[in-house]
Amino acid sequence: MQKKAEDVEPAEQTDDQRPGIQSVEIGAEILSALATFGRPVPLRSLAAKCGMPVGKVHRYLVSLTRSGLVEQDALSGHYGVGRSAIAIGLSGLWACSPVKEAARAIAQLRDATQETTFGAIWTDVGPTVCLLEESDRPIYMNVRVGALLPVYQSAAGRVFAAHLPEELIKRVVKLQEHALSTPVAKLTSVQARELHQETRANGYAGVAGSSVPGVNAVAAPVHDYKGNVTVVIGLLGREPDLPLSAESAPIKSLLDCAALASERLGYRAGAAGQQEVED
After folding, report:
1. Which residue positions in the chain have pLDDT lower than 50?
2. CA nearest 205: which of 219, 224, 222, 216?
3. Could you tell me if 168 and 237 lie in one domain?
4. Of 47, 61, 65, 157, which residue has the fewest beta carbons closer than 10 angstroms?
5. Domain enclosing residue 245, as ranges
6. Own/partner pairs for 240-248, CB < 8 Å, 24+ apart?
7. Do 178 and 75 share a structural domain?
8. In angstroms, rounded to a whole number, what is the distance separating the alpha carbons of residues 98 and 121?
């Protein structure tokens, strides 16, 4: 006999099947939309962002303001994120760790692509592998947890270089001339800036057979809630299995996993500089 929805145990139901309170979900949607502006905004701008009537949004804002989740500027009448919402957000951020999210992301990425995945952090001597998930496909590689990566000859290094201060990168490249056993690639300032710009525009960096002939590497940044790049995730695979084109399925999976990890850390792409038409 088939179970009715109300007879299904909570553990057997998905989030979409479980009964909820619609007004709470609408309030959360309004609050999330407000957070994307990064500043107090007029009621009409917020209503337009939510795709809801002004009157409906106003009623929810009254309750959200009473609860401290929203604050209204006394002079302009604009609405912004309240202290209670900020406290909730900070609590979530304190529970987050970029490396923990990267570990979660590379496990998902390995399962999605069947390729070896890794995570890297920035140290005083350059990008260093901190996470590694090996695939079932045998490939020869000299990458291990704790391995120091060259700045411009590794995909992870190129991603960090594109997002960190130029003077810091120059200093570390000079240090790596003595720290690494392999020759370090030297770029002119113009070449480096062009590479940084290309990496930021693409959203990832790729290198073909730089460390190991026949093995490609690609990497993408994970942003924290401030937009900083503290960890990078990437893929390693044989050239036929891991093409460096942005249209390849592995790179699309990489970008998706990096974006999801960034979102979990509180990052909202374009939120800080977002400009809305205000009435």
Report:
1. 1, 3-9, 272-279
2. 219
3. yes
4. 65
5. 98-264
6. 241/115, 241/137, 242/115, 242/216, 242/218, 243/216, 244/206, 244/208, 244/216, 244/218, 246/202, 246/204
7. no
8. 10
Query: Does residue 192 fall inside a structural domain?
Result: yes
CB of 222 within 8 A of CB of 101?
yes
Buried b (16+ CB within 10 A) or exposed e, 202-223: bbbbbbeebbeeebbbbbbbbb
The confidence score (pLDDT) of residue 272 equals 45
Residue type, 175: L
- Whether 63 and 45 map to the same domain: the answer is yes
Distance CA 240, CA 249 (A): 12
Q: Per residue in 149-173, is it b (16+ CB within 10 Å) or e — as a string?
A: bbbbbbbbbbbbbbbbeeeebeebb
In 3-state terms, what secondary structure has residue 192?
helix
The residue type of 77 is G
Nearest residue to 45 via CA among 72, 78, 68, 83: 78
Q: What is the pLDDT of residue 236?
A: 92
Name the residue type at position 29: E
Number of domains comprising the chain: 2
Two structure tokens written together for 242: 């891991």
Structure tokens at 136: 């079932």
Q: How is residue 237 written in tokens?
A: 């695979």
- Give φ, ψ of 135 to 5 degrees: -90, 175
Considering the entire predicted model, what is its pTM?
0.66
